[in-house]
Design a protein that fits this description.
single chain, 97 residues, alpha+beta, five-stranded antiparallel sheet, 3 helices, 28% helix, globular
Amino acid sequence: MKNIEEFLLVSASQIFQVGLKFLRQKLYTVDNPGWRLQVELVGTKLENLNIERESYEISETDWYTFIIKDKKFDAAGDPSKLEILIENFKRIVDQQD
């Protein structure tokens, strides 16, 4: 839960530390059910990064996926995967340092 709180309450200093000019994020529920997280990467050090879709599906109720394309991180997962979606985004940011 700590990762979720940190991500949603990101401070200007945290954004600066990862070299992002701004962090525009959208978090919403999807009807299958689950979460969808989108982070705009325009104006950041990640804006030219492309990552092929990675998908993990154990069952209909145990899954997540993410991609970076068109200057956007786009991830979705089952209701228990919000923290994993955020951790994947943070891992990608950290790998770019």
